[in-house]
Design a protein that fits this description.
This protein is α+β, with helices and mostly antiparallel strands. It has one domain: YaeB-like fold (2-Layer Sandwich). It is built from five helices and nine strands. The strands form three sheets. The protein has a five-stranded mixed β-sheet with strand order 1-8-7-3-2. Strands 4-9 form a two-stranded antiparallel ribbon. A two-stranded antiparallel sheet has the order 5-6.
């Protein structure tokens, strides 16, 4: 049985962060669900060896807030220069100032294997797998593409990135999706 632990990085996913969060589940509860689901084979391989996308339990879905709104002509957008972690290059983050949060159709947990995190000394525990991100996927969306800024950080092997290469189609789909959806500021 493979063990999943909570990484420090995922703990930024709280109310007001513009990221998926749960007010009723602890990070340990979420990591336990990820572990159970992964050990049941409810995962797909991610963008590289050592990254897994685990499907969260259906019973947990309603306990997560999906931070996204669909962009339309009434959506006000704001951009800010942000930095995820000390030492990383700043980037431009765009958020919606208004809109209705979309309902989560399912939840995915992003897990990184210890050796992948160790490449950049980003492991938080000694566990084989660490929960690094939680994604509430809006109803009706089959696949939530990675954000283009994250893809860029990975492909260029910048600080905070994890070595990867994406196809031109993956790039185009990510840009296309993120032209239609945005996280609600403070959501």
């Amino acid at each position: 049985m493979e063990k999943v632990a909570v990484t420090t990085f995922v703990k930024r996913q709280i109310k007001g962060s513009g990221k998926t969060y749960s007010e009723s589940l602890s990070f340990d509860d979420i990591a336990e669900d990820a572990e159970v689901q992964m050990n049941r084979g409810k995962f797909e391989e991610g963008y590289r060896d050592g990254v897994r996308i685990v499907t969260g339990s259906l019973s947990f879905t309603s306990q997560f807030t999906c931070p996204f709104v669909k962009i339309d002509e009434n959506t006000e957008l704001i951009s800010s220069v942000m930095q995820r972690q000390e030492g990383e290059d700043p980037y431009i983050q765009t958020r919606a100032k208004n809109g209705t949060l979309l309902k989560a159709g399912r939840v995915e947990y992003i897990l990184y294997r210890h050796d992948v995190l160790a490449e950049n000394d980003e492991q938080s525990t000694e566990a084989e797998w660490e929960l690094i991100s939680i994604h509430a996927i809006p109803e009706g969306i089959d696949k939530l593409p990675m954000g283009p800024v994250t893809m860029m950080r990975n492909q260029l092997e910048l600080k905070g990135g994890t070595k990867a290469h994406y196809t031109s189609e993956e790039w185009a789909e990510a840009v296309r999706f993120w032209q239609k959806y945005a996280a609600l500021d403070g959501g």
